[in-house]
Structures are given as C-alpha cells and as structure tokens.
Sequence to fold (180 residues):
Amino acid sequence: MHKDVLKVLLTKEQIAQRTKELAEQINKDYAGKSVLMICILRGAVLFFADLARLLDVDVRLDFMAVSSYGAGTSTSGEVRIVKDVSQPIEGLHVILVEDIIDTGHTLKYLKRLMESRNPASLKICALLDKPSRRETDLQGDYVGFEVPNEFVVGFGLDYAERYRNLPDVCVLKPEIYGGK
Ligand code: IMP
Ligand code: MG
Fold:
C-alpha cells in the first residue's frame, strides 16, 4: 500500500468486476447502434480505457477536458471547457464517461452543453457517485459504485494532480489533505 493511503475503499478487482457489469449493460442497451464514448479528462481515463475494451458494439472514442477544481478538495462551482471533442456529435449516441459525480455541477453543465448539439441520445457513465454531496438534480445512467462522503483518490482520481496512478480507490491519511 502507498505510504500516504489510510484505507482502500475499492480494490482493483472490485472495479474490474463492476466495469464488466457496466459494459454488459451498455452492450445490451446499444446493441446494433454506433456509440461515441467521450472521456472526461483526466480522472476518467483509466476507467474509460478499461470500459472501452469490454464493449462489443460499434464504438468511437473522443476526449474532453474541463476544469472545475483548483488544487483543493471542494468545488468552485465554475466549469471551463479546456479541450472540446474533435467531431460534431449531432445525430450520434453519446455516452459521457466521468470519474465521479460529486456536487453534479460539472456534468450538469456538460450535459446541457452537449444536448444543445443535438445528439441522438446522451447518457452519463461514472465510475463513482457521491450522492450525499449532490447540489444539483444530475443523475448518472451507468454508475459503478456509490461512495461515502470522503475524498477519494486512485484509479484516475487525484488530489492536487497526484495519486491518479494508484490501482485502487483509496482514502488518504488526513495529514496529506491538510497542507502541501
Ligand atoms: P462535481 O462537479 O462536484 O460533481 O465534481 C466533479 C469533479 O470533481 C470530478 O470529476 C473530480 O475531478 C472532482 N472530485 C469530486 N470528488 C472527488 C473525490 O472524492 N476525489 C477526487 N476528485 C473528486
Ligand atoms: Mg475529473
């Protein structure tokens, strides 16, 4: 275990198993259709890569980057598009893939933006969901796990851009979140 980790919340085995279940559901729901999967960088990248490899429907991959947080652990409420998708999404079946739904502000904003571009359909897939923190009516369509109100890192999720490469979803020791 990494020296800064207090506890492991979800092991890589649990994540792999759940990702398989989500992929099976998506394969069933989108059978015979073409899907555009959009990875919300950077937190979703590991989940996205695993999920994409388990899909057997016709899939295209694209990427977006948004910034809503500074280096801390609480939301600023502000969402900025840092990188947009590289193709029009009109008429396509789109799935936005995120690492975590926290307050819901980021995805609420993105959902409204993407809907204005007239996709054939638009769904949200998130590895994690922290419903106790929600400040919007945003809901995920495909959700991996509900997590308690703790700041988590690993499997793509960061604290101040670190710990994204940890193979499990973890909670850090309190002194790490304090200052640095
Ligand atoms: P929301 O707009 O509050 O739903 O926040 C979404 C974004 O905040 C996510 O994409 C993450 O980048 C970040 N975030 C929220 N909670 C956590 C957490 O527990 N660990 C790491 N990042 C988080
Ligand atoms: Mg993120």
